[in-house]
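I am writing to request your help with a piece of structural work I have in hand. The matter concerns a single protein, recorded as an amino acid sequence and a row of backbone structure tokens. Could you please explain, in whatever detail you think fit, how the structure tokens follow from the sequence? Thank you for your consideration; the sequence and its tokens are set out here:
>
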Amino acid sequence: MSEKELLRKELKKARDKLSDSFIETNSELIFLNIKTVLNHLNFNSIAVYKSFNSEVSTDITIDYLLDKNKNVCLPKIKNTNDMQFKKINSFTKMQLNKYGILEPKNGNNINQDEIDIFIVPCVGFNKDLYRIGMGKGYYDKFLSKNGAQKLIGIAFQDQLVNEAFQEKHDIKMDFIITEKSILS
């Protein structure tokens, strides 16, 4: 097991120990920081992930963006190593995928170049704006196809790692947002 895989395992284990109240309170603070960043960016379409387990909750962010009449897109797993994004609205039917994550059951496919901003989950991150994901490489593979969009990673401050773990295939974020900071 590589050092990065060990680090991912440790970070997931620590995050899974967070209380529901910690996740809820700090997800709301992260949302306020997301709003601050988004207020300075010009965009129409934004991709957000649907949180599960101990990840930063994105529900409030998704509701806010839909209320602002933005084009909101969620990922849908296509096969073992690829995903697509579907435009959603408040009536979109959701279903669990093979990982237990809610994804759109219906909705129009959106091409990557039509999405202005991606909000990406992080298991961990460093001050160099690199993230550790869940380990399947879905986002790095998808985002490596076109680097024109703004990339925002979100995580809890305790997920900050002081090590330079990034590898050649990792995609650098434009921002990493936590409940305590906005790194750019």
Notes: The radius of gyration is 15 Å. Residues 20 and 54 are 8 Å apart (CA to CA).
